[in-house]
Amino acid sequence: MPSRNYGRVCILFALCLIFLLFVIWIDDHHLRNTFRKQYPKVDQGIDNSTLGFEAIFAINAPWRTDRKDSLMLATAHTGATIEWIDGINASSIDERAYPQGNHRTMTKGNLGSWRAHMNVIRTIIEQNLSTALILEDDADWDHQLRHQLASFGLAARTLPDMLKNADRAGQVHIPSTDETGSPSSNIDPMDLTKRSTLPLPSTFSASSYYPYGDKWDILWLGHCGTSFPPHQNGTAKDSVPDRLKLLNDPTVPPPQLTSAQSPYPPNTRIYHRTHSTLCTLAYAVSQGGARKIMYEHGMRNLDKGYDFALSEWCDGETKHMGERPMCLTSSPAVFGHYWPDNREAGGGKSDIAGVGGGGIVSTGRGLVRSVRGGLEALINGEDL
């Protein structure tokens, strides 16, 4: 028979385990309550079927019905409505339709992607939409999407004026590749980071008809990588703020699940100007932004993939360009990629440039609770 001491050890172990689980639950509960208090209420139009924009467009190649089915099911569970734009096979594009530039060096996938995005931009201009969200058919999002967008809306209404002040103060200027990451040796990077970052406001005092404000060209909501703009010509003492932070955001993946390094605490989302941003899986444009994009990338020049060209343009690095556009994003992104493995519908690589899950990633990259990765649970009436 087991000894009394053995029984006591088992009871003590069980009590310790229960206590540990209780502590973990309390910590998670506290984090989510803090998250709810910090996030603004979902109002001012963001709770509508177009997420606060005038329209949502999704690009889908007609031959990828698998992705169309998956994206439609995900948007239905989110309560969003989308308008479909056909993807383009580059072989159908007349040679005379290309802008100036060395487009012959580009892949067929990149050429088709470029034309599909230009078709969406043209539709936005034709319909005179004030704002529109553009999704690629492998976009994914967290089940707390509307709360995330409400927070992004506050950032989008706050950042443009902050960035203009920083520009005037000479703290931020158009960066070049050679300058990036090489601040003066007498500047403490961590001190500079702290002084350059303000908390995300919980409310916005100025009235605005638009949930995201009206002083931006692009809201780069979904990407596969971006960088914080470098600080230039300044000291930690007189740095002018140029970014916003949201602490204790449980929709931010833990550091061990992301490859990006950040000077900020875990569970922190940073809103900032775009810099070296890649992938156009989800982005919003204003009417003014759409017209600038159509001229710059649909008429004036074409010599690289659309996302690379858009990134350079947002960074102010495009040759002979006009005024630098106002392009805003967040780190991490709000939207992520969904690449099912090869056992699921939609498995395999991207149709654009051969990037993608390739049977490796089966959930939304950069997301805590992926909607597309959780469709089976949602269909069965379960919570994510």
UniProtKB/TrEMBL annotation:
Start and end residues of each Glycosyl transferase family domain = 56-150
Q: Which UniProt keywords apply?
A: Glycosyltransferase, Membrane, Transferase, Transmembrane, Transmembrane helix
> Can you tell me where the transmembrane regions are?
6-26
Q: Which CDD domains match?
A: Glyco_transf_25 (cd06532)
Q: Which InterPro entries match?
A: Collagen_mod_GT25 (IPR050757), Glyco_trans_25 (IPR002654)
| Pfam entry (one) | Glyco_transf_25
Signal sequence: where? none
| Keyword Transmembrane appears in the UniProt entry | yes
Task: Please tell me whether the keyword Lipid metabolism is annotated for this protein.
Answer: no
Q: Which molecular-function annotations from GO does this UniProt entry contain?
A: transferase activity
Q: What PANTHER family does UniProt report for this protein, alphabetically? A: GLYCOSYLTRANSFERASE 25 FAMILY MEMBER, PROCOLLAGEN-LYSINE,2-OXOGLUTARATE 5-DIOXYGENASE/GLYCOSYLTRANSFERASE 25 FAMILY MEMBER
> What family does this belong to?
Belongs to the glycosyltransferase 25 family.
**Protein name listed in UniProt:** Glycosyl transferase family 25 domain-containing protein
